[in-house]
Amino acid sequence: MKIFKVGKKDDGERLDIFLSKKIKKSRSKIQKMIENEIFFINNIPPSKSGEKIKTGDRIRYDENFREKKEKKEILDESKEKLDEISIIHDEKDFLVVYKPSGLLVHPTEAEEPYTLSNWLISKYPKLKEVGESPKRPGIVHRLDKDASGLLVVAKNQKMFDSLKEQFKKRRVEKKYIVLVHGVIEADSGKIDFLIGRTDKGMMASRPKLDKTKLKNVGLEQKGKKALTFFKVLKRFSRYSLLEVEIKTGRTHQIRVHMKAYGHPVVGDKLYYNKKIKLEKDRKLGRLFLHASDLCFYDLKGTKQCFHCEMSKKLELFLSKLN
Q: What pTM did the predictor assign?
């Protein structure tokens, strides 16, 4: 952080001109920085780039202010999302919880204070003793931050181990409502492209190579097996509404598979095609990915199934499509 004090020789000068001389940046760059609230005049952000400065003014230059502000806004938004969590079902061995979009399931290395797992511990302190990590109390599976829907949470270690085994043996049934870009002609389909992590840390999936073709000799697709089934529920002029069922639980599986299939999920800021117009995605402000149905077995061997409807925000978005 730097502080510039305005002397007599600079009295009445435009703020952007003054700063461009001090910081050695172009006026257009300075004007953009002023818009982003990087500078403060006497601890108050300037109203415009051409604001006139006066002798004795103290101009603070805080390069990290915008980043700090954005982090605070994200934290405030996450805190508000805690009010949208709801318990769908609660009994001795497990909970079924609705997670809203915009909320992490558990903290990352950044130690976010407002997450579903922290909320669960505040309501059910004994969950700290369940599972494999205090950061993920009783949690066997998760949803992406910007997705919404159902999660099952084990309330004791026996149920946790049972659920873990059920996921491993693919006995858990998970269905999602997903809106994707483009019109899918097939009424249903299966995507089984391998999924792997790229050098940049993102997940990636590509259609299988035909090894009988000469051009593919020596090329190997790396990744883990992943299986996604979809059924078209409704077609719009530029979108398709799908019911998706996954048989494996790879990171970002639906998002990565749908992008590789040529129909990325609406609202996805990470896995999208640059040729697609994203104005409506930005207005939606979240992933159109909702975990609507969840089935698993309790400790008595009885199949338990749960369903939750989409949020009003998603319903409203759909109603405006043609």
A: 0.75
Q: Enumerate the active-site residues.
A: 144
Report the amino acid identity of residue 155. K
Q: Read off φ and ψ for residue 45, nearest 5 degrees.
A: -65, 135
Same domain, 176 and 263: yes
Q: Which residues pair with 205 in a beta bridge?
A: 195
**166-200 residue pLDDT tens:** 999 999 999 999 999 999 999 999 999 999 888 77
Q: How confident is the model at residue 62 (pLDDT cuts 50, 70, 90)?
A: confident
> Looking at residue 47, which CATH number applies to its domain?
3.10.290.10
Higher pLDDT, 209 or 162: 162
Q: How far apart are CA 175 and CA 57, in angstroms?
A: 60
Please check whether residue 170 is in contact with residue 164, taking contact to mean a CB–CB distance below 8 angstroms.
no
Range of the domain at 219: 170-322
Give the CA distances from residue 140 to residues 106, 155, 222, 248, in Å, rounded to whole numbers and listed in that order: 11, 11, 26, 13
Give the domain CATH number at 219. 3.30.2350.10
Q: Based on the structure, what is the number of domains in the chain?
A: 3
